[in-house]
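User: I'm designing a mutation panel for DNA primase and want to avoid disrupting the core. Could you give me a predicted structure to guide residue selection? Please restate the sequence first so the numbering is unambiguous.

Assistant: Good idea. Sequence first, for numbering, then the predicted structure tokens:
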Amino acid sequence: MKARYRTWLAVPPDERELARNAHPPVNGQKAIVWDGEHKLWYAQPGVELSLLDKWLPRPQNFSTNDSDPVT
């Protein structure tokens, strides 16, 4: 599935180069871009998200209360 909008990614610092090289440029622009204001990586519109699946956020993996931490 191609991104229709800016898609935020969860990229650990030690995987940034791997993420940046996971997708070829789109329309002459980098597919993965750093947003300095939000301090997050994102995929540009038009990027094939299946190539970035490893870094797509998975909200279902987060705890919903303090008594059930996700480790």
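For picking mutation sites, this is relevant: The helical segments are 16-20. The chain has a mean pLDDT of 89.
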